[in-house]
Structures are given as structure tokens and as C-alpha cells.
Write a structure and sequence with these properties.
The protein is α/β, with parallel strands linked by helices. The chain has 3 domains: 2-95, Calcium-transporting ATPase, cytoplasmic domain N (3-Layer(aba) Sandwich), CATH 3.40.1110; 102-237, HAD superfamily/HAD-like (Rossmann fold); 247-470, Calcium-transporting ATPase, transmembrane domain (Up-down Bundle). Helices cover 56% and strands 13% of the residues. It has 19 helices and 12 strands. A 6-stranded mixed β-sheet has the order 1-2-5-6-3-4. The protein has a 3-stranded parallel β-sheet with strand order 7-9-8. Strands 10-11-12 form a 3-stranded parallel β-sheet. The longest helix is centred in the middle third of the chain and has 46 residues, at 234-279. It is rod-shaped, with a radius of gyration of 35 Å.
């Protein structure tokens, strides 16, 4: 950077600062403290040696220089003319230490499968020293690529370095940053770029997620970014990744839980309609009872899932494919068989209820009192099994885990759902509205038996899935 100033006496002087190797290449003189004299190769070597030594200690170095200009040189505005035969004044070193939280945050984000690279205009030794302090690493350890090397490097090789992580791209220009970002985006990956300067704005704009520094960043960088990091902390960014993963996982749990009960209701209603059409068997659920399941029963526990904290493995999982969806082949199969199982248990309890009470619904009319109790058995079976399903889905380790106690709000919501269910079944005024009736001890035994059977099958299937996921791959 060069600034031209006119002094009170009328003279014009250019003041320059920049990378040591850049300004030394333009220097003709040096101020050694006692006199201004022609610069020698020994002077250049000594300054570069000091620069290298300080850069190895993670110091950022700038050389300052001046040149007295003629009026013609100043008027030309030709940078090649202005920045020649500079007089070197000295070397200035600055320290921009990493924060104490960075190494731990780096360890966390690397374990999460996120590939981290440094793309900077700093000298390679400075950037390398900072990378070591931060604990940066990639598939091949730590790699250094200079701007000169990057200029001649084919796109495939640049992409290999970027996707492997742990690469320090040093002395790069703004267009180099954009090139790296565009290559990674074109490969189908999600790219987040952090930056604070004007030169970072193009890369921030091209990235999927541009993150500007709120405390030290320029207005241009903030306007180009999607996110402004108010505390300029890498650790905060890592926490945001963990929070995003937790939110996505909680949404997934809620969606799949909701669809599971929908499938159960579909199975019950379909089977009940078929039996009613073919054999005259009364319907197992009425419309209000279906609404009671969806709007009064499961809605509170599913909503409370949104407050579930991160589970221990959240930042140990690899990043999900950006093309992945909550409803995929595996999740659809899971919802279908779980929902169908709940529906089958509910229908079995409905029909067994008549058998236990000496009624054949296929050939004789069902008394209203017994029908209300039978429908209540169906309703409560679906509700209890659905609550078990929601609880089991909360943790990757299943039903029996300490994580179940991590969110008290969830259990308040479950208690509320159970209370509403009992009110619908046992409070006469409400029961009359919903067409339900109180259950006896034996009825509850069948309901809880269905829930226990469902949990056993669900836990067994989950254990098999976890065992299959952890099994070592066979040899080719």
C-alpha cells in the first residue's frame, strides 16, 4: 500500500508499506539509522532473515519505505514509477495471537469431519506457525501452498488440497480465494468462509455461508456475508455448527415421530373400515379420538423435542450430505413398520377386548357401553405406544439412556399428554364428548403389554442397526 502526501514545504513523498519481499524488490536505498545509503544484497538478506525468523514465531511483518517524488512522478499516478528506488526505513512486526479457545475448538470441528483450511495474504511461515498453534490438520497433516504455486497449480490439485483440509494457502490474492471457494462448491460441498477485510468480500459472497467478523470486520465484509460473528471467535462458529446439527436432529425426531402415529392411525382406520364394510364391525376410533391423538396427545412431547440438547456424539458424526433429506428410503421404511406395528397392536387390543367380554362383533350388535370402552382401549394403546416411540427416538442409544433426563421440559410435556389422555378417558363430561369410557385393570394390562412389546421390537431393531453400523467392513 502506498500513500502520497505533500508536506508543508511543498515537497511530495510516497509512503509505502507491504510484505518484506515485495518492498525489498523495489528498494534502492536504506536508512540504517545513521545515514541513507544504497541498499546491498547483504542488507536484503539480513532483513529477509529477520523476517523469516519472526514469521516462524507467528509474527506478521511489514516493511516501511518512502520515496521523495518529483511533481512529474506524482502527477503520473503510475505505480511502477512511484514504487521504485524506495528507501527502506525498517521492519515492523505485529502479533495477532490466536484465542485460547481455538485449539480445543479446532479439535472438536476436525473430529466432526469438517475440513478447515487457511486462505490468507500472510507470509507462509507466519500462517504455518499460526496453523500449528491452532492445531490445524488434514488428511495429509499440514500442507503449505504459496500464491505462486497456486497460480500454476491445476484445478484438480487445488481441489485435492482444499477437500483434504489442513492446507495453508499463503500470499493469495482475492481472486485466488474465489477460485478455491468456487472449486469446492462445484464439487458438491458446502463452503463457509470467514473474513474481515475488503479483500475477503468476493470470497464471502461466493461462499455458501459467508461469515464476517463483527468486532474487527469492515463494513464491506459484513455486507457481503450471510452471518456476522459478533465476538470474532472461531469457537463460537464451532458452537454454531453443533447447534445447527442439534436443531436438524431434533426436527428429524419430531417429523418421524409425528409420521409414525399417522401411519398407526391410518392402519387402524383402514382395517376398521374394511371390517365395518365386510362384517359390520363398529369402527375402532372416531374422528374426535383421532384428533385427540394428534392435537392433544402427541403435540406437546413432539414440540418439547425442540429443546433437546446435543447428544454426546453430535460433533463426532461426519457432515451430512447436503442432498440428504429427512424422508429418505431408510426413514420411510422405519416409519412404516413402526407405525404399522402400533396400528396392529391397537387393532388386536380392540378385537381382543370383545373376546374378553364375550362379544362377537362380527355377528351380534355391540352394547354402547362396551363399544366406548373398546374404542378407549384402541385410543389409549395408540397414545401409549406413540409416547414410547417418541421417547425411544430421542437418543441414538435408544430408550434406556441417561440422555433421557437431559431435557426436563420433555417430561413435563409427556406428563401433560398423559394427563390429557386420562381426562379424556375418565372424566365423564369429557369422555361423553369424545365417546370414551374408563378402562379397567385388565384393559390397562393389555395396553401396557402392547407398549412393552413395541418397545422390545423397536429396541431390538435399533440394536441390530447399531451393531451393523459398527461392524468392520469385509475385505475386498
Amino acid at each position: 500500500m502506498t500513500s502520497i502526501r505533500r508536506d508543508p514545504a511543498g515537497g511530495v513523498t510516497a509512503y509505502s508499506k507491504g510484505a518484506p519481499e515485495s518492498l525489498l524488490a523495489r528498494a534502492g536505498l536504506i536508512d540504517d539509522g545513521s545515514a541513507v545509503r544504497p541498499i546491498t544484497d547483504a542488507d536484503r538478506a539480513a532483513l529477509l532473515a529477520r523476517h523469516t525468523e519472526k514469521a516462524g514465531r507467528a509474527l506478521r511483518n511489514l516493511v516501511f519505505a518512502t520515496r521523495v517524488l518529483t511533481e512529474a512522478d506524482a502527477a503520473s499516478a503510475d505505480i511502477g514509477v512511484i514504487e521504485r528506488d524506495l528507501t527502506i526505513l525498517g521492519l515492523v512486526s505485529m502479533q495477532d495471537p490466536i484465542r485460547n479457545a481455538v485449539p480445543a475448538a479446532m479439535t472438536t470441528v476436525l473430529a466432526a469431519g469438517v475440513k478447515v483450511n487457511i486462505v490468507t495474504g500472510d507470509f507462509s511461515l507466519t500462517a504455518e506457525a499460526i496453523a500449528h498453534q491452532a492445531g490445524l490438520s488434514g488428511d495429509d497433516g499440514l500442507s503449505i501452498v504459496t500464491g505462486a504455486e497456486l497460480a500454476t497449480m491445476p484445478d484438480a490439485e487445488v481441489l485435492r488440497h482444499a477437500l483434504g483440509g489442513g492446507t495453508v494457502f499463503s500470499r493469495v490474492a482475492p481472486e485466488d480465494k474465489v477460485r478455491i471457494v468456487d472449486l469446492v462448491k462445484a464439487s458438491g460441498h458446502i463452503v463457509a468462509v470467514t473474513g474481515d477485510g475488503i479483500n475477503d468480500a468476493p470470497a464471502l459472497r461466493h461462499a455458501n455461508i459467508g461469515v464476517a467478523m463483527g468486532a474487527s470486520g469492515t463494513d464491506v465484509a459484513k455486507q457481503a456475508a450471510e452471518i456476522v460473528l459478533l465476538d470474532d471467535s472461531f469457537a463460537t462458529l464451532v458452537n454454531a455448527i453443533a447447534e445447527g446439527r442439534t436443531i436438524y436432529r431434533n426436527i428429524t425426531k419430531g417429523v418421524l415421530s409425528c409420521l409414525t402415529s399417522n401411519i398407526a392411525e391410518f392402519v387402524v382406520n383402514t382395517a376398521s373400515l374394511a371390517l365395518a364394510s365386510l362384517f359390520g364391525v363398529p369402527l375402532a376410533l372416531n374422528v374426535l379420538q383421532i384428533l385427540a391423538i394428534d392435537l392433544l396427545g402427541e403435540i406437546f412431547p413432539i414440540a418439547a423435542l425442540g429443546k433437546d440438547p446435543a447428544e454426546g456424539e453430535t460433533m463426532k458424526d461426519p457432515p451430512r450430505d447436503s442432498r440428504a433429506r429427512i424422508l429418505n428410503g431408510r426413514s420411510i421404511v422405519d416409519v412404516l413398520w413402526c407405525g404399522s406395528l402400533i396400528g396392529v397392536f391397537a387393532m388386536v387390543n380392540y378385537l381382543v377386548f370383545f373376546s374378553r367380554n364375550g362379544i362377537d362383533p362380527f355377528s351380534q350388535p355391540v352394547p354402547a357401553v362396551l363399544l366406548a370402552e373398546a374404542m378407549s382401549t384402541t385410543y389409549v394403546t395408540i397414545m401409549v405406544c406413540q409416547l414410547v416411540s417418541i421417547i425411544q427416538r430421542r437418543s441414538v442409544h435408544g430408550f434406556f439412556t441417561r440422555y433421557q433426563f437431559a431435557n426436563p421440559s420433555f417430561w413435563y410435556a409427556v406428563s401433560l399428554a398423559v394427563t390429557i389422555m386420562l381426562v379424556i378417558v375418565y372424566v365423564p363430561l369429557v369422555a361423553g364428548f369424545f365417546g370414551t369410557s374408563g378402562l379397567g385393570v385388565l384393559d390397562w394390562a393389555f395396553v401396557l403389554g402392547a407398549a412393552v412389546l413395541f418397545l422390545g421390537v423397536r429396541e431390538g431393531a435399533a440394536a441390530l442397526r447399531r451393531r451393523g453400523a459398527s461392524a468392520p467392513a469385509g475385505r475386498a
